[in-house]
Amino acid sequence: VQLQASGGGLVQPGGSLRLSCAASGISLDDHAVGWFRQAPGKEREAVSCISSVDRTTHYADSVKGRFTIARDNAKNTVYLQMNSLIPEDTAVYYCAAEPVRSVFTIGTFNPSYWGQGTLVTVSS
Prior knowledge:
Layout: E1 2-6, E2 9-11, E3 17-24, E4 32-38, E5 45-50, E6 57-59, E7 67-72, E8 77-82, E9 91-98, E10 113-114, E11 118-122
């Protein structure tokens, strides 16, 4: 199983980035998928997740209204569109997958599979 994250980089405050995560070895049709992040010196936190069947989405309060998660099961890929970025969004972002069809809250998202991480730096 491999989750390949990409799309990170350096962006100015107020800018946008789109992260992608392509899965191989598993079918995302049967998985809830999402993103975590870990900033330097801080604990890893869940950012967003999306269920498989009804595509229900959940977000951390810190990113609501700025980030949008989406999935393309045909491409076995999940995306995270990040707008209005702020320096506090600087972190390594990890995609992850849990072998369930639905997730009911961001706090109950409990992945079994993890990607390698992509660095997002928000700085002027």
